[in-house]
Design brief:
It contains two helices and four strands. It is an alpha+beta fold. The strands form two sheets. It has a two-stranded antiparallel sheet. The chain has a two-stranded parallel ribbon with strand order 3-4. Strand 1 and strand 2 form a beta hairpin. It starts with a strand and ends with a strand.
């Protein structure tokens, strides 16, 4: 699919042709739960599963919170809270 965008090219002022991108989140719009994402499991997720979780959240219109954990008690609190809410959360770490 090609769309004509009303931008002028630098050479002769002709409209530029731009390819329309498919929505990368479209495959997640009909999913009922993030548990339906292929490869999703309780615990740590990485790679394609983590990326698909972000795309699912975008398709459903919500953000996934990230918590900077400074110790094991903070990590445990985040995990317990996310489990009680039934929602995913990112645990992040930083130096200092």
């Amino acid at each position: 699919l090609k769309l004509t965008i009303p931008q002028h090219s630098r050479s002769f002022g002709e409209p530029a042709l731009v390819e329309a991108m498919a929505d990368p989140c479209a495959q997640f719009k009909d999913m009922k739960s993030y548990w339906d994402i292929p490869g999703m499991k309780a615990g740590v997720i990485t790679g394609d599963v983590a990326w698909n979780l972000l795309q699912y959240a975008k398709a459903k219109g919500f953000a996934i919170p990230a918590f900077n954990c400074t110790g094991s008690s903070v990590c445990n609190s985040v995990l317990e809270g996310a489990a009680k809410l039934g929602m995913p959360a990112y645990i992040q770490f930083s130096e200092g």
